[in-house]
Amino acid sequence: VLPVVLWHGxxxxxxxxxSLGAIKKLIEQHTNGTxxxxxxxxxxxxxxxxxxxxxxxxxxVDYVCxxxxxxxRLTDGYNAIGFSQGGQFLRALAQRCPTPPMRTLISxxxxxxxxxxxxxxxxxxxxxxxxxxxxxxxxxxxxxxQQQLVQATYWHDPLHESKYRLQSSFLADxxxxxxxxxxxxxxxxxxxxxxxxxxxxDTIVQPRESQWFEFYAPGQDQQIQPLNxxxxxxxxxxxxxxxRKRLQLLSVEGDHLSISQDxxxxxxxxxxxx
Length: 274
What we know:
The chain is of the alpha/beta class. The protein has one domain (4-114, 169-273): Alpha/Beta hydrolase fold, catalytic domain (Rossmann fold). Helices cover 39% and strands 14% of the residues. It has twelve helices and eight strands. The strands form two sheets. It has a six-stranded parallel sheet, sandwiched between helices. The longest helix is centred in the middle third of the chain and has 14 residues, at 126-139. It is globular, with a radius of gyration of 17 Å.
């Protein structure tokens, strides 16, 4: 069984016993003790927690790329599970850092077409959450906000698409929306499987469809554009992945990351054993 790499979401860390610590144990128990590495960004738990809000994704992806290259147990490849924004960070890793090779990527509630609205901030005080929401609503594409607030880097304003494409410092790049980087599409298509899990009652990710690579049609924020009509479908080679049956879309009842142990064991662990 291949090793498994986990990347936590906003407001979490690598190793809380009630979140990713428990997931790590669960995977180890049901994969015959396979090696599971839960990513700690920055070397300690405080930095790791802060990374979810304040360390630019490009820096995080670069850091993880170097860390995984030093891990001899990953030389022959690994499977990966991203939780919330960890989903799009791992996808960026697959596209930018093909060594060691990622085989299967499972994204749980990842925002692959970004967000337009942040109704809740897990584990943050209300005042901090309100401040972040105001920054996103009024100044998301200002350079200093892009550099200092992680959520701004995948803020996708459908009412100002050209501004988003030009000034998004992370998502527009990994989605091949400003320039088409052939290497990104090639590397993504090296995955054996890309599994996107959408939470049907999600109250954190707006729109929920972003978890399946769908988003509002440009120019409004009501109607969702089907995946096969979006630019990212061809620009990232998702059409090829679907054709080759490498793109799998799963949905589960529940709020953001509300996933039962039974569902995890039934639907996700077999993908790690495959």
